[in-house]
Amino acid sequence: AARDADWELPRTLAAVAVAVEPARFAGGSEPPVRFPVGTITENLGEVLCALVPDADAPGRRAQLTRAVRQAGARAGLGTTVAWGDAAISFARARAALALAPACDEPLICASDHSGELLLAAGAVLAADFAAAQLAPLAELSAGSRERMTATLSAWLDEPHVVDVLLNPD
After folding, report:
1. What's the pLDDT score for residue 97?
2. Would 15 disulfide with which of 39, 46, 82, 90, CB 3.0-4.6 Å?
3. What is the three-class DSSP state of 46?
C-alpha cells in the first residue's frame, strides 16, 4: 500500500484519530486538518486516520496541536511505534479521542493519559495491572506486608496523589 501511495515508510510513526463529520471528508476531498508533510490519511467512517512520520521530532506535537485547533477538530494522538505497529498506535489514538468530552485539549495524547486509558480499557485489565504492581508485597513477611499496605493505602487516600498518577503533567 505504501508503494502504491508512493510513500516512503518511516522508521517510526504515530497515528492520529480525528473526529470528523462524514460530509466534511468525502469523495477524496482534502482532510479537514493540515498535517505535516509526509503524513498520509484515510477516512474510516467518522474517524480520520493520519499516520504521522517522526512524531517525536522537536516541535511536532505543537505542530499537530495547532493544526487540530485551527481545524476546529478534536483528535487523539497514539504512541510512537515502528511502522509495522501502526495499528497499535491507531487503537491508542482512538482510545485517546474517546477521552475528548472530558478534556479541554484539542489533541489528546495517549501517552499523557495512560492512567485514564487503562481504567477505561476495562475492570479486568485494571485488576490485572494492579495485581502485577502489588505482587512484590507477597514476598514480604506478614508484618512488613501489613505496614507497607497501610502506608500505600494512606498515600493513595490523598486526593492529590491520584490526580498526579492520572495526570503526571
Report:
1. 92
2. 90
3. coil
Helices (H), the chain: 60-70, 86-98, 114-121, 123-134, 142-157, 159-166
Q: How far apart are CA 124 and CA 18, in angstroms?
A: 28
With H, G, I as helix, E, B as strand and everything else as coil, classify residue 34. coil
Other Cβ atoms closer than 10 A to 140: 13
Cα–Cα distances (Å) from 124 to 3, 118, 121, in that order, read: 41, 10, 8
The residue assigned the cell 486516520 is: 49
Q: Report pLDDT digits (tens) over 29-49.
A: 566 788 988 888 888 888 999
Query: 15 phi and psi, to 5 degrees?
Result: -90, 145
In this prediction, residue 24 has a pLDDT band, given cuts at 50, 70 and 90, of: low
Answer yes or no: are the C-beta atoms of 106 and 113 closer than 8 Å: no
Does the pLDDT at position 157 exceed 90?
A: no
* Number of neighbours of residue 72 by Cβ within 10 angstroms: 9
Q: What is the DSSP letter of 9?
A: P
28: left (phi over 0), alpha (psi -120 to 50) or beta: left
CA distances in angstroms from 126 to 83, 115, 121, 143, listed in the order given: 28, 10, 8, 27
Helix (H, G, I), strand (E, B) or coil at 75: strand
Question: In this structure, what C-alpha cell is assigned to residue 38?
Answer: 509526509
